[in-house]
Amino acid sequence: MVVEVELGRVKRSGRPGAARGVAAEELRRHNLATVLEHLHLNGSATRSQLTSITGLNRSTVADLIGQLTDLGLVGEEQGGAISGPGRPSPVVYLKPEGAVVLAVEMSVDSIAVATVGIGGHVYNQIRIARPRGHFDPDTTMSDIAELARPLLGALPQGHNLAGAGAAVVGIVRQSDGFVHLAPNLGWRELPLGQMLADELELDVPVRVANDADLGALGEYRRGGLGGVRHLIYISGEVGIGCGVIANGRPLHGVAGYAGEAGHTLVNPDGLMCRCGATGCWETEAGEKPLLRRVPAVESSGLEAVDAVTQLAELGDKPTLRAIAETGTWLGIGISNLINLFNPEVVVLGGLYHRLFDYLEEAVGKGMERSLAAPRSMAQIRRSAIGANAPLIGAAELALADLIDNPAAVAAR
Q: How far apart are CA 155 and CA 188, in angstroms?
């Protein structure tokens, strides 16, 4: 027997009775996930609101809430007074301790760890700066464990650890968290997911993804974008990271390697890139070319970006010109992405988040190379989450399995 579930429809083949049973089970899983996801993204809601939002009848919603309550994921409290006859509808709220995840971010300049409960409740988080250099993986895992253990120990009694998610600046196979290449960390062919699980002695799933992909996921789910379904997230650090949300779903490619927009061609007569090609986007719009255009800044890394920001705030004209030139090239690269993906919103994070006020106008000029129709639909926004977008995205990644199948994951 084969049962396929596609966009809410169940296509059956084989024995009709068995197929109906599987279809009913799948429908219940879908409804349970729908209710839990709404609460996760939007906060508390009354039973009446959930009935209206889901289109299910009241008895079905009550049954689903009862199951989520039994799983320890939600609770109920009496609603406030209402006008007219009848009783107030009970308010359903999430219990963050019912599903907690560990989120980790490994960037060029820092590592960060957070404990996050369902509903986006951040229990604790910590970020420590590290000087740029090639830290060996074992040392990094040890540093992460040293940060994570106190945070895990501080979680409320009776919490349920549902999983862990990690963001890393590299090319990651999402099926098993294998990092093929993280050039800015000096890592190659690394089973990062398994290493994290072993170091932290975790018996829950550990999911790993590219930091820009998770920055996009974090902004999409926690960035206050409302009904946006098509989004591009772009961050600048040593290189340029790009994550795409298409019709509400992350665009990963076959194995999770999609989104390497920093190595798309923007200037055939430009400079040699570290990837070996000439004229890549990051050679014109990344951190390195920005600093090359500001000779007054002799440092590198976060210290240099701080110095550029301070000069811009003081109105230093050479610095403002350098930022504008970088912004124009950033806009040219974005114009290619607008033509390809037709997004509603382009979110700028990382370096571009910090310099957004000085980049915005130049980015708009660079974007004029895109086709008029898709360009008119795309808004450019500063990241609402800022530096923590990949970290929050890592938490959302770790919670995804639970939200998709609450009963199975909670039982596990």
A: 34
Q: Which two tokens stand for residue 175?
A: 């099926």
pLDDT in tens, the chain (412 residues): 333 333 333 343 445 555 566 688 899 999 999 999 999 999 999 999 999 999 999 999 999 999 999 999 999 998 754 544 557 789 999 999 999 999 999 998 899 999 999 999 999 999 998 887 767 899 999 999 999 999 999 999 999 999 999 999 989 998 889 999 888 888 999 999 999 999 999 999 999 999 999 999 999 999 999 889 999 999 988 889 999 999 999 998 887 788 889 999 999 999 999 888 999 999 999 999 999 999 888 777 788 889 999 999 999 999 999 999 999 999 999 999 999 999 999 999 999 999 999 999 999 999 999 999 999 999 999 999 999 999 999 999 999 999 999 988 877 7
- The helix or strand, by DSSP H or E, that contains position 367, with its residue range, turns out to be none
C-beta separation of 227 from 327 below 8 A: no
121 domain residue, yes or no: yes
Residues 395 and 319 in one domain: no
Read off the tokens for 67.
């199951």
Q: How many domains is the chain partitioned into structurally?
A: 3
Let me know whether 252 and 373 are in one domain.
yes
For residues 180 and 235, the answer to whether their CB atoms sit within 8 Å is no
Q: Report which residue type is found at 290.
A: L
Full-model pTM: 0.90
Domain-terminating residue out of 78, 94, 110: 94
Secondary structure (3-state) at 102: strand
Of 385, 391, 387, give the one whose Cα is nearest residue 351: 387
> What ranges make up the beta strands (E) of 81-120?
91-94, 100-106, 110-117
